[in-house]
Amino acid sequence: MSLDQTPGHDPAPVQRPEQSLPVQASPAPVQPVWSRPVRPSRAGRIVVAVVGIVLAGLALLVVFVYLTTFLGTGALLFGLLLALLPLAVVLLAVRWIDRWDPEPRPALIFALLWGAGISIFSALVFDLGVQITIAASAGALTGSDFASAVIQAPIVEEVAKGFGVLVLFWAVRRHFGGPVDGVVYATTIAAGFAFSENIQYFGLAMTEGTAQSLGITFLLRGVFSPFAHVTFTICIGLALGLAARRGATKSAAVGYFLLGLVPAIALHALWNGSTFVLAGDASMLFYYVVVQVPLFIVAILIVVFLRRQEERITLRRLHEYSQAGWFTPAEVSMLGTGTGRRQALAWGRRQDRSKKLAMRRFIADATRLAFVRDRLVRGQSTPALHAYEARLFQLLMNHRADVLGPTLPGAAPAAR
Predict the structure, then answer these.
(1) DSSP string for residues in 252-267
(2) Nearest to 326 by CA among 22, 26, 23
(3) Buried b (16+ CB within 10 A) or exposed e, 182-191
(4) Do 29 and 1 touch, CB atoms closer than 8 A?
(5) Nearest 5°: phi and psi at 380?
(6) What is the sign, positive or negative, of the torsion defined by CA atoms of 300, 301, 304, 309?
């Protein structure tokens, strides 16, 4: 029993890959994969996720309390509402990047809270330590706005944000499979950091400045540079994604983290330093167009390339499974191409809720299976990964059965 084709979809030719790792042949007819599948305990993962989210949320609450002490409640709420606008833009970009192989929602929530809470809290504590050290030196040490903005802030903030990506690499290794995943987590953390930072900037502009200064602040922070922190931190996400792709251990990932940290700090320092080197709005605009815009375009091109690479990997690995009987060629086209997925999801929307969800899960778990296969082919063979492969096989057989159930009257059924 299989989905021979998506309604109205002629299967596209499937790339024939090299067979570098045997695949266990599918039983005929298809039955549950193993009589006693390995079921990893979910209780431990749920506890870790809840604890992590609660701690990160408490850190964000502390940040809000701190901001309220010198902004006031009104300015805090005003800044918060205004900061939601650029945050929404960045999160929409995250959703687009993450559309092919979505990351677990709890991990994304944790990433956002890490950026908005723990990263900001870490930067504030470090800055407080610097201020206390300077005050205790009895004049032996003096503060410098340039050193604070160009040296301290880039190092402290990128370490704080980047460490969050590293924590996710350690905690959700199963879902951290490559550079796109690293970009998604890094972008989400950076968006959270910029959100809390923008609350402060917008709140201060409201309480201490004029309407014109508030407008300029929003233009710079909300229009010109909502992706500035993202551009810095994705260097770390890309590095850790490369570590995941190469099967690096948790300890070896620290080296990749440091490798990505260097360009992240450099780009952040370049951005902050431009405000000291360049004088006048015209010079800043020139710098933005000549330096920041090309960097942003390069980042977009990298993400587009990585997303297309994900599609190629999915198509190639699912084809290998189809040769062993787990999928038909039409199903591979449906699951491994953008056109096939869109038509399958459109068909699912004409069905009842259970079948629509089954089609979504069929696509999502097939994509996860393809990336598990890719890791196995790359030599990352572990008992846990084979157990996860077995679990995905069983889930996919269940999803297929659900999708192939009775269709709604008037809806085109999937061929059997």
Answers:
(1) HHHHHHHHHHHHHHHH
(2) 26
(3) bbbbbbbbbb
(4) yes
(5) -95, 50
(6) negative
Give exposure, 80-105, as e/b (b: 16+ Cβ within 10 Å): bebbeebbeebbebbeebbebbebee
**Residue 112: per-residue pLDDT:** 97
User: What are the extents of the domains in the chain?
Assistant: 43-277, 313-403
Report the alpha-carbon distance of residue 364 to residue 348 in Å, rounded: 14
Other CB atoms within 10 A of residue 256 CB: 22
Instruction: Calculate ∠ Cα 191-156-204, nearest 5°.
Output: 60
- Tens-place pLDDT, residues 257-276: 999 999 999 999 999 888 77
Angle (CA) 7-10-14 rounded to 5° is: 125
Cα distances from 348 to residues 6, 114, 340, 359, 402, in angstroms, run 10, 36, 12, 6, 11
The angle subtended at Cα 322 by Cα 371 and Cα 352, nearest 5°, is 80
User: Which tokens go with 70?
Assistant: 């010198």
Give the chain's residues under pLDDT 70: 1-44, 278-284, 406-416
Q: Which amino acid is at 203?
A: G
> What pLDDT is attached to residue 37?
37
pTM summary value: 0.83
**CA quadruple 279, 283, 289, 290: dihedral positive or negative?**
negative
